[in-house]
Amino acid sequence: MTMSFTLGQKVSPLRLAVLISGGGTTLRNLLDKIAAGKLDAKIELVISSSAKAGGLEFARAAGIPTAVVSQNDYGSPEEFSQAVFEPCRQAGAHLVVMAGFLKHVLIPPDFLHRVTNIHPALIPNFCGPGMYGQRVHEAVLQSGARMSGCTVHFVDDQYDHGPIILQRSVPVLEDDTPDTLAARVFACECEVYPEALRMIAKGTVLVDSGKVRIVEKPESRRRKAKLP
């Protein structure tokens, strides 16, 4: 089953395919938000780049189909990317959500602006090849930056690149370690990523000339007009 979806279209629920590589903490957060009624979405499929990824257990416990697509099994980036996205098409996903997915993929034309990622820093700072996990927070502390945060963006063919949907900042404290900063940033991620997905599901996120534009739907304007 394939699913036609374009930005600006309101959908309920938002059908997701989630890509993971490790422990699945972002996946678990999305599952928790959905279960609590705070995210109108349904995770149709979880794909992992590693059979050893702990996040697969969260998916299985929730009764979500899983697949393992190892980059080592494919001879080219194009073949690997096809192996990742074809199951997402068949699952009928509106959106592909990267949740700690550490492999580079090429975005097929039919998934342009339909793949999201969250990065644990304020892009364009502290991002790019090799900048993930604790490495990001170590680099922030070494730089002396006073603020860090997280960025939700659409994914293109470059690392940590593509139109930015949402960013939130957190302070860097004098006594921070990479672990304490990571915990503060992740707490921020747990709210910001679902918020960005809610906006996409409501049809308020568009991409214009390579930049995200947030628009109000007519019903939102009508509600505001009724307020005293």
Features:
alpha/beta; Rossmann fold; 9 strands; globular
Helix content: 25-40%
End-to-end separation:
46 Å
The proportion of strand residues reads: 15-25%
CATH class membership: Alpha Beta
CATH superfamily: Formyl transferase, N-terminal domain
Compute the number of helices.
6
Question: How would you portray this structure in words?
Answer:
This protein is an alpha/beta fold. It has a single domain, classed as Rossmann fold. It is 33% helix and 22% strand. It is built from six helices and nine strands; from the N terminus they run E-H-E-H-E-H-E-E-H-E-E-H-E-E-H. The protein has helices at 25-35, 55-61, 77-90, 134-143, 178-201, 218-226, and strands spanning 14-20, 41-48, 66-68, 95-98, 115-119, 147-154, 164-171, 205-208, 211-214. The strands form two sheets. Strands 3-2-1-4-5-6-7 form a seven-stranded mixed beta sheet, with helices on both faces. A two-stranded antiparallel sheet has the order 8-9. Strand 2, helix 2 (55-61) and strand 3 form a beta-alpha-beta unit. The longest helix is centred in the C-terminal third of the chain and has 24 residues, at 178-201. The protein starts with 13 loop residues before the first strand and ends with a helix. The model has no long low-confidence stretch (mean pLDDT 94).
